[in-house]
Every structure is written in C-alpha cells, then in structure tokens.
Amino acid sequence: MKVVAVTACPTGVAHTYMAQEAIEKECRKRGYEVKVETQGSMGIENELEQEEVDAADIVILAVAIGIDGEERFEEKMDAGKVLQVDPGEVIKRPVETIDEAEKL
Amino acid sequence: MSNVAKDVIKKEMILLQQDAKTKEEVLHYLVETAAENQLITAQQPFLEAVLNRESEVPTAIGYQIAIPHGKSSTVSAPFIGFLQTKEDFIWTQGHEEEVKLIFLIGVPLENENNIHLKFISQLSKKLLDETFRAQLLAITDVNQAYELLSSITI
C-alpha cells in the first residue's frame, strides 16, 4: 500500500507536524510506504511530485487551510481516493483515520 | 544540549505541579511568566492572539495535552512554555478533552529563524511518543523537565 498525504494548519507550527508524525507512524506500523508533505511556517517540505501522487493508492489531505498545489490531487479526487480530514482528528485518532482511508 | 533548545526553552518557563483548573488560569500564568522573562513585550496582545486561536479550534490534541499558540508581534523569538497541572481538567467547556500537560507556543509574526520553528515542530512530534508523554506526566523536578525537553534533536 502506498500512501501520500499533505498536512497544513492555520499557524503551521505544531498541528501540521504532529499530523505528519501521526500519519507516518501509523502507516509504518502497517508496513505501508508513506510520504507526507508539510505546508507550515517553514514553507513546503517533503514536497510530493505528481508521479508520487499518481502512484499512490490513497491520498490523505489533513488540512485546515487552503493548500498549494491542490491540482496535483484532482485525478485522485475524481477516482474517490482522497480522504479529507482535520489535522486534529488525525493526531487524536490515527488508527481510525488510516482505517477510513483504506476503505476508499 | 543544543543552543537551539536553550533559545526556545527557558527553565523559568517550566511550571510543574500547578493547581490551575481552567484554561484561563493556565494561559494567564504562562503569559505572565513569559513577560517576566522578556519573551514577549506585552501580555494582553499576545494573550488575545492565543485566545483567538483557541476560539477557532481548541488546541487540546488528546493524550492529556493542549498546545495553545499565538503568533504575535509581541513575541521577539519563538519560545515554548510548559505547564503541568496536578489534576486533569477540561480544557474547553463544552468539549470532552481533559488535559494535564500544556505547552504554550509563541511565534513572531515574521519568522526569521527556521531553526527555532524546527525545534518546536520536533518537540510537537515527540508528544506522540507514549514513553515521552509518560515521562512528562511523572516529572516533578524542573531541572529534569528541562533536560528532557531540551534533549530533543532537530
């Protein structure tokens, strides 16, 4: 299973990175390949290339604000493979979030 | 201990075994302490920034932790304050989340020094580590808490 995700929150100092950690941790536990792009106060890090998005089985957008480069996920959205979730929710309930994403 | 940790966490900003039982009490005390230690230039505008952020979405993140934060021109350099209470209390009335470990994060409007923000993000990530949380809950000595928090590597 290949998972890609973007995390972003209004201030971009804590939630963005905690959500990243929560997603990475849970995916690794399940043996999934995972890459999480963060859009926070330190700018865009770990940026996802279009090819990486295309190759993913699941996309998780754990974002509470508008993000840069959303068009990268259009195809996946049309295919119903994008889970949109609040960053806080991912931090609190990583297991349930990944479960939900798997069902897509 | 890295210089970055020293910049971001001051021993004076570690407040353990506190009796506070409301968000207001906790924030008031942390903000007051931040001002006493010259981390902010004025209390009121910073407190308002923090409370505004809280009113968007409360910052209790589960795991008995809240991470209130404010971005404000009153902040000279990014900092973290840590307050641990004796008892769990409800962070925001009307929400179920109870907290015991509160991390107040202050960042300037303009972020010039990413290395400080990097430290804050690393510390935030570390809060998802169960062992680290257990240590923070059990700790009663300021020096030990300081060592623990500043052991984070970026």
How would you characterize this protein structure?
- The complex is a heterodimer of chains A (104) and B (154).
- Chain A is α/β, with parallel strands linked by helices.
- Chain A has one domain (2-102): Response regulator (Rossmann fold).
- Helices cover 39% and strands 27% of the residues of chain A.
- Chain A has helices at 15-29, 50-55, 74-78, 87-92, 94-102; strands spanning 2-8, 33-40, 43-45, 58-63, 82-85.
- In chain A, strands 3-2-1-4-5 form a 5-stranded mixed β-sheet.
- Chain B has a single domain (3-144), classed as 3-Layer(aba) Sandwich (Mannitol-specific EII, Chain A), CATH 3.40.930.10.
- Chain B has 6 helices and 6 strands; from the N terminus they run αβααβββββααα.
- Chain B has helices spanning 3-8, 23-36, 43-56, 114-126, 130-138, 142-150, and strands at 9-18, 60-62, 65-66, 69-71, 79-90, 98-107.
- In chain B, strands 1, 2, 3, 4, 5 and 6 form a 6-stranded mixed β-sheet that branches.
- In chain B, β2 (60-62) and β3 form a beta hairpin.
- In chain B, α2 packs antiparallel against α3.
- The longest helix of chain B has 14 residues, at 23-36.
- Chain B is globular.
How many domains of chain A? The number is 1
**Which stretches of chain A of 5+ consecutive residues score pLDDT under 50?**
none
Query: N-to-C terminal Cα separation of chain B, in Å?
Result: 12 Å
Strand segment count of chain B: 6
CATH superfamily of chain A: Response regulator
Features:
heterodimer; A: alpha/beta; Rossmann fold; 5 helices; 5 strands; about 40% helix; globular; B: about 150 residues; alpha/beta; Mannitol-specific EII, Chain A; 6 helices; 6 strands
List the helices and strands and how they pair.
The complex is a heterodimer of chains A (104) and B (154).
Chain A: E1 2-8, H1 15-29, E2 33-40, E3 43-45, H2 50-55, E4 58-63, H3 74-78, E5 82-85, H4 87-92, H5 94-102
Parallel strand pairs in A: 1-2, 1-4, 4-5
Antiparallel strand pairs in A: 2-3
Chain B: H1 3-8, E1 9-18, H2 23-36, H3 43-56, E2 60-62, E3 65-66, E4 69-71, E5 79-90, E6 98-107, H4 114-126, H5 130-138, H6 142-150
Parallel strand pairs in B: 1-5, 3-6, 4-6
Antiparallel strand pairs in B: 2-3, 5-6
